[in-house]
Write a structure and sequence with these properties.
- The chain is 27% helix and 36% strand.
- By secondary structure, the chain is an alpha+beta fold.
- The protein folds into 2 domains: 3-236, Rossmann fold (3-Layer(aba) Sandwich), CATH 3.40.50.300; 241-348, RNA polymerase II/Efflux pump adaptor protein, barrel-sandwich hybrid domain (OB fold (Dihydrolipoamide Acetyltransferase, E2P), Beta Barrel).
- Helix 2 runs parallel beside helix 4 and helix 3 (110-123) packs across helix 4.
- It binds adenosine-5'-diphosphate and magnesium ion (MG).
- Magnesium ion (MG) is lined by residues 41-42, 193.
Length: 349
């Protein structure tokens, strides 16, 4: 076991920021804390680091209780969204900082420090920029230097709080792939905070989904995406159409009085141009491009529900050429959630 958190609670005044958190994080894994803003991710990370005291509960690292240990004694590396590098120091000196400030007895020799920094520079693919100053780096390069600086002191645990949050979409996507690759090489036990479900799904070995200070589900990306524990997880991990209703002999029936919630992802709906058994008529209200797919907003004729449907750009071209306003939808898989007993049931139609 890497990190074990037991019965952790944290209040700010009357406000409950973390409620009975129990969590086990495997040694060597990259774990994402995923949840909306305000769900308690940063608070949990700061408590793990020792930057914040827990109200109650226990934390252990590799089997040792560290609840009362100082941040220094915990042996942690940190990367924040805005982890300001020292502006007056070169990239090399920034990375070497944590080693240079060690007391003489535990400080590596100048040569050893140089070797270690050069090794880290190679790892973050910035070998040629050792002499630059932070102002001469891009945002993505700065965050890579911040990561190297955190790793220089050889922490046992690496904590990252929205490290790519301030960067633009393309750089973010590159950096998360890069972080995944780096983690596969060094296998340091890491906890990564993000509110971005795509980032969590792509980067992590495990995802901890949080909402309102409580853990909703812990699992692999495939687990939480395909077997969500509750409606919150279902809705938070990717786009979803939600109806109140039931699944009948010929497909789904919208029914405001039904106790069940029906979830259908936009790619689980087939779109046809003519009526077929079980299909539902709807009107195309809006369309937008999502990379290689097109997402349509469709108003269902019978129930007036708004539904999002993903189609290929070829199909969209067809719709435009035929000048179609009305289409027919077939719900190919429906996930029904019983509010009575909290169970999910999958229908494939
Ligand atoms: P997240 O990182 O998931 O966005 P945080 O852990 O930062 O959420 O915050 C969780 C909740 O706790 C928020 O509602 C926030 O306003 C509150 N909170 C965080 N830190 C403090 C503090 N020092 N004092 C009072 N409330 C706080
Ligand atoms: Mg936060």
């Amino acid at each position: 076991m890497g990190i074990k958190i037991s019965n952790l609670n944290k209040n700010f005044g009357d406000f409950v920021a973390l409620k009975n958190v129990n969590l086990e994080i495997n040694k060597g894994e990259l774990t994402a804390l995923l949840g909306p803003s305000g769900s308690g991710k940063t608070t949990l990370l700061r408590i793990i680091a020792g930057l914040e005291n827990a109200g109650s509960g226990e934390i252990s690292f590799f089997g040792e209780n560290v609840s009362r240990k100082s941040i220094k004694e915990r042996g942690i590396g940190f990367v924040f969204q805005h982890y300001a590098l020292f502006r007056h120091m070169s990239v090399f000196d920034n990375i070497a900082f944590g080693l240079n400030v060690r007391p003489k007895a535990s400080r590596p020799s100048k040569d050893e420090i140089k070797q270690r920094v050069m090794h880290l520079l190679k790892m973050i693919q910035l070998e040629s920029l050792a002499g630059r100053f932070p102002d001469e780096l891009s945002g993505g390069q700065k965050q890579r230097v911040a990561l190297a600086r955190a790793l220089a002191v050889e922490p046992k645990i690496l904590l990252l709080d929205e490290p790519f949050g301030a960067l633009d979409a393309k750089v973010r996507a590159d950096l998360r792939r890069w972080l995944r690759k780096l983690h596969d090489e060094i296998h340091i036990t890491s906890v990564f905070v993000t509110h971005d479900q795509e980032e969590a799904l792509e980067v992590s070995d495990k995802i901890v989904v949080m909402n309102k200070g409580e853990i909703q589900q812990v699992g692999t990306p495939v687990d939480v995406y395909e077997k969500p524990a509750n409606p919150f997880v279902y809705s938070f991990l990717g786009n979803v159409n939600l109806f109140r209703g039931r699944v009948g002999a010929d497909g789904i029936v919208s029914d405001e009085s039904a106790g069940d919630l029906l979830f259908v992802r936009p790619h689980e709906i087939e779109l046809g141009f003519e009526y077929s058994a079980g299909s539902k008529k709807g009107e195309i209200v809006h369309s937008r491009i999502l990379g290689s797919r097109i997402r349509l907003d469709i108003k269902m004729q019978e129930s007036a529900d708004m539904v999002e449907v993903d189609i290929t750009s070829a199909k969209f071209k067809d719709i435009k050429e035929k000048n179609l306003k009305f289409v027919y939808l077939n719900f190919t898989s429906v996930h029904s959630y019983s509010q009575e007993d909290g169970s999910f049931c999958d229908y494939y139609i």
